[in-house]
Amino acid sequence: xxxxxLSAVIDDKPLIQRMMELYQYDFSEFExxxxxEHGYFGYPYLDYYWIEGDRYPFIVRxxxxxxxFVLVNQFxxxxxxxxxxxxxxxxxxYRQQGIGKLVAFQVFDRFCGKWEIYQIxxxxxxxxxxxxxxxxxxxxxxxEIAIDDSDRQGIIQCFDNTSKCSLxxxxxxxxxxxxxx
Length: 181
Fold this sequence. Notes:
By secondary structure, this protein is of the alpha+beta class.
């Protein structure tokens, strides 16, 4: 089974838009959002991923099947950090199989620098996933902080993968397509 993380081109935007609705539906359990008048949750920042240079959209495929998406950006809560997972979605069918962890590793390896991953307080499943994934990726070399302010309430894990990237010949400092078995 091949897991591919592919840089999304503008023609992929409708795919991400549709999967974003599934993601938002899953997430509505925690944020209690309602649908808009057209029956969509919507995502106001999606267009910017093809306009602004500090946003990076990815499609996830397992074999030839769509399996999710990842949105990375450079809008961080902690000023010295460089990269953030804005949204991370794996279809339920592909969860609990190690695919999400593999996808996260591939995404981390694309961008060398200081990372932060944020989860809201209520999403304990995501907190468990990210703690485990980041602990394995960094060999436990990460920090975690709790935040509670007017904008965010939750957990942020922070790590720097610069040295890992410099040791890994397959790591690239800019986006590229990758395939792993």
